[in-house]
Amino acid sequence: MSALLIAGPTASGKSALAIRVAEATGGVVVNADSMQVYRDLRTITARPSLAEEAQVPHRLFGHVDGLENYSVGRWVEDAKALIGELRAQGRLPIFTGGTGMYFKALLRGLSDIPAVPDDVRSRVRAEAEGLSAPELHARLSAVDPATAAGLRPSDPQRILRALEVFEATGAPLVSFQARPGVPLLEPSTTRAFFLVPEREVLKARIDARFVTMMDEGALSEVEVLAARGLDPALPVMRAHGVPGLIDYLRGASTLEAAIERGQRDTRAYSKRQFTFVRHQLPEFEMVAPEAAWDVVSSSLRSLPPP
Fold first, then answer.
1. Which of 31, 252, 303, 304 has the greatest number of CB atoms lying within 10 Å of its CB?
2. Taking a C-beta distance cutoff of 8 angstroms, is the pair 26, 94 a contact?
3. 224, 36 contact by CB (below 8 A)
């Protein structure tokens, strides 16, 4: 087996399963979550604890500063280098997380989108400053309706990315996305699983985990982040729970409302994770969390070596 992929909605037990597999195989847990790359946020992104990281090797967790606009393309570069490193060591990469685009890039490759010059990116972001996400979406619709149609009006980061590409190339972002990429992994020697908890159980877990994160210092973590004065459009500033807690710190919300917003946003995200895997990741085998270890351990024994 060249790699094991463990995906699933937030709070489904992915990390615990990955650690168990790593202990059994001598493998390495590799992050496939777009928020857990940021060193600024451990608690509120449910990044593995220091104790968990001490159990087995973990890579690509907390290695990016929040000031950076870390992208799927950057992650693919990091993952490609790491795959080569682990392959040379004869160690199994266990990709674990909830970001569907990361897994899609592993299995299908990434479209060859031209790099956006720094001056173009700076100009687009300066023009966008102060505009709401729906206003940015309307601006994109005026110049690139095809790409805008596939983006949520509440997703400023992807909208800005599309505006940057259009400004730099004069072509719609979707025109580049349609071009096939080069997969990082060979599907025939890779197994992929998506954990599927019962919906009401998952909802309760998400709500309870957010309360636990608050008890473990999430508010202090967000307070330190807010003090940096970063661009609110940066990915790290939009991690689930962060916007609401920043509003609370600024006196624009009650703590109760901030917690409820974080729980609500996380539940909504979990629904999108299910939708993404159903429509775009048919390679993944759906498995109930309580049966996951038996299914995964069986696959480790049955697949031929890479």
1. 31
2. no
3. no
pTM (predicted TM-score):
0.83
CA dist 111 and 55 (Å) reads 36
Q: Which two tokens stand for residue 260?
A: 């409820």
Which DSSP helix (H) or strand (E) runs through 214?
helix 199-215
Q: Which long-range contacts (CB under 8 A, 24 or more apart) does 281-286 make?
A: 281/7, 281/100, 281/103, 281/104, 281/107, 281/192, 281/194, 283/107, 283/187, 283/192, 284/5, 284/7, 284/103, 284/192, 284/193, 284/194, 285/191, 285/192, 285/193, 285/194, 286/193, 286/194, 286/196
Number of Cβ within 10 Å of residue 191's Cβ equals: 21
Beta bridge partners of residue 28, listed in sequence order: 93
- What the chain holds in terms of domains, given with CATH numbers, is 3-110+181-302 (3.40.50.300), 118-177 (1.10.20.140)
Show Cβ contacts of residue 108 under 8 Å, excluding neighbours closer than 6 positions.
Answer: 180, 181, 183
Taking the C-alpha atoms of residue 88 and residue 86, their distance in angstroms, rounded to an integer, is 5
Distance from C-alpha of 255 to C-alpha of 251, rounded to nearest angstrom:
9
Give 97's strand partners. Answer: 7
Residue 73 neighbours by CB under 8 Å, 6+ apart: 110, 113
Q: Are 6 and 94 in contact (CB under 8 A)?
A: yes
- Cβ atoms of 230 and 67 within 8 Å: the answer is yes
> CA distances (Å), 107 to each of 98, 117, 167, 205, 280, in order?
15, 28, 29, 30, 11
Q: Is 197:267 a contact under the CB 8 Å cutoff?
A: no
The model's pLDDT over 61-113, given as tens digits with 9 standing for 90+, comes to: 999 999 998 989 899 999 999 999 999 999 999 999 999 999 999 998 887 77
